[in-house]
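Input.
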Amino acid sequence: MASLSNTRLQQLLEPGAQALGFEILAVELAGRAGSTILRVYIDRPDGVTVNDCARVSQQLSAILDIEDPIPETYALEVSSPGLDRPLTKRKHFEDAVGREVKIQTRSHIAGRRRFTGVLRQVMEEILVVDVDGEPYDLPMIEIERARLVSKV
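Output.
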């Protein structure tokens, strides 16, 4: 679907968001040809407003128009991460220690790919997640998607 990975798209867009004082938490390219959505989650210490999302969207649209990294038609969505924020960087995981997380791995680990539990520890290249009282060591390189679990 995409000519660039989500990581490369994030690297391309990050300077534009940073210029406005925002961090890009995650980039997701979802859907299929004809209905593709590029979602960009932004944050900053004092939070994100609707107007912030509009400003960042305008900035990122300009970058995307110039670089043209996605060959098909797509819609750009810029939003705050919400309560179930994505965890994409080592610092995000470190900040989430002691909180409930939902993780999907690229391949099976101990016979499963989905883990929901408390993030106990972030070691060099391993996350330790306690799922129903049983610890699982998840290699960071195997993490496909991770989010905080919101308690609403």
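The helical segments are 6-19, 50-67, 90-95.
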